[in-house]
Amino acid sequence: EKVKPKNMLVAADLVLSNELTEYLSDLTKKGIEVKWIDHHKESLDVYKNLPDYLKDKVLVKNAGSATSLVYDYLGLKDDISRRIKLIGDRCDGERHMSEEVEEDATILHKLVRLSEPVVSRARRELACYGSIKSDDLKQKAAVVGLLMAYGEKIMKERLFYETNNFQVYCLTDVIPYLIGIGHITREISTKNQKDVYTIVERNGVTTIKGWVKSDADKIFSKIAESLGGVTYSRAHIGECRFKERISLERLVDILKELY
């Protein structure tokens, strides 16, 4: 409701839902041009059932990133755009990539854990040069890397519960400035080939961060319903927030029922 475009709405890298489909339909009927670009599996599922008059306004394909789809949609051919496409794919989880962008992709992947002005500077440099040039940005990324490595070490020491299908880690009483917990959760899940749930506590808010192979929405909706939290999920990522500490034993019981 806050967004009131005069004649066009363009959205990229946002999961398409049935509710959003109704919204796009309403905008189209009001004469507003719509272009929706996404690469997530959930969007592909919704796209199959779209009415024909919306299908030409929605570009949904299986791709390494939404950046890739925008690159192809705009027909970009220049070297800077090509590098940004490769970096976008890597930052969105692509494991195989060209070595030419490895350094820049790694730097950006770390910098996104910092403030928006820092991230915006890095993105501007990528847009202008196809590479991150500033030494201070590289130094900030190096510090983030050290903190994330320390965070992974701490997490491995805080395994609370484990089954053949999932692991639960508890970080409710550790140093509050650990960063990149979501990324670390994902890395541990990939290494161990199990779904991973990490509980963190900051500023009086308890958060469950998870990386799961499938059904993130179903799993986190059930957790939120059972424990009284607010949830967000897309693709393999899920998160639940609570205004007070939760029972870890109760969380484990819920997960056992789901698995």
Summarize the structure.
The protein has eleven helices and nine strands. The chain is an alpha/beta fold and 259 residues long.
Topology:
Elements (H helix, E strand, L loop, with lengths): L7 E5 L5 H12 L3 E6 L2 H7 L4 H4 L2 E3 L5 H9 L4 H13 L10 H10 L4 H14 L5 H22 L2 E4 L3 E6 L9 H12 L2 E8 L2 E7 L4 H12 L2 E5 L2 E6 L5 H11 L1
Parallel strand pairs: 1-2, 2-3, 5-6
Antiparallel strand pairs: 4-5, 6-7, 7-9, 8-9
Helix pairs in contact: 4-5, 5-6, 6-8, 8-9, 10-11
State the distance separating the first and last CA atoms: 38 Å
Query: Taking all residues together, what is the mean pLDDT?
Result: 87
Largest sheet data: 6 strands, mixed
> Taking Cα atoms only, what radius of gyration do you get, to the nearest Å?
20 Å
Structural class: alpha/beta
**DSSP helix count?**
11
Helix content: 40-55%
Apparent shape: globular
Provide the low-confidence segments as ranges. Answer: none
Strand order, main sheet: write it out.
Answer: 4-5-6-7-9-8
Q: How many E-type strands?
A: 9
SSE topology string: EHEHHEHHHHHEEHEEHEEH
Residues in β-strands, percent: 15-25%
Q: How would you sum up this structure, described in words?
A:
By secondary structure, the chain is of the alpha/beta class. 49% of the residues lie in helices and 19% in strands. It is built from 11 helices and 9 strands. The chain has helices at 18-29, 41-47, 52-55, 66-74, 79-91, 102-111, 116-129, 135-156, 181-192, 216-227, 248-258, and strands spanning 8-12, 33-38, 58-60, 159-162, 166-171, 195-202, 205-211, 230-234, 237-242. The strands form 2 sheets. Strands 4-5-6-7-9-8 form a 6-stranded mixed sheet, with helices on both faces. A 3-stranded parallel sheet has the order 1-2-3, sandwiched between helices. Helix 9 (181-192) links the parallel strand 5 (166-171) and strand 6. It is globular. The chain starts with 7 loop residues before the first strand and ends with a helix. The model has no long low-confidence stretch (mean pLDDT 87).
